[in-house]
């Protein structure tokens, strides 16, 4: 699929942060004079405690766990332990998964990721759950796609610092969708978005929700910590409310924004051409062989 003129679906992997992002990192506790010391402290903790066996322990890899927990070494270590425990418990989310096999989520417009950043420099991912047809696409594919996006996003230094934003569009949500939201599914969703990945979800904006969501949300509420609740924002169909948090210049037209919307497929095709990303995903258990033609 050809990329639209003037639109670049790419990752920015440069180690040097833009000045504005570097200032945010400094406020979060990132100090160039102590970076090497804290990385080494985390590496030593991994070896000494032995509660997980990471596939990498180089500086670039460890720094994303430290950034995700504001340079608190103990919290970064605990995050790493949870991350590998989550992977061990859910190998079907990544093991021998070909990212290109997930293109149906883009074709059906269930997931989209904007090539534009918001006013703070954060990535914006949209999930349109009402367009998901459980009889066509198994729920495990939603987890696979979400985990893949978070894994790839965590490779971007800027995203490591700023985190990302999720828009959960619930237009068209039915009881058939709600029946798939079991407590076990809810726990895995929270693990991916809040507790077990080395990339912060800074905000989650719920739009176009109705009574079905209000019913299904009762499953989630007991599992939410106060910190998680502070990241959730409910807007219904009120676009003015949404724009208080995300500038329309970073939003697609369907949410009162100024930008066109592009499918998840564009990201997949770009990532498949990025050798560094492909190498990292293969180390994580993904496969990259071309899909057979129909």
UniProtKB/TrEMBL annotation:
It comes from the Eukaryota. CDD domains: SEC14 (cd00170). GO terms for molecular function: phosphatidylinositol bisphosphate binding. GO terms for cellular component: membrane. Pfam families: CRAL_TRIO. Residues 98-263 form the CRAL-TRIO domain. This is CRAL-TRIO domain-containing protein. It comes from Anopheles culicifacies.
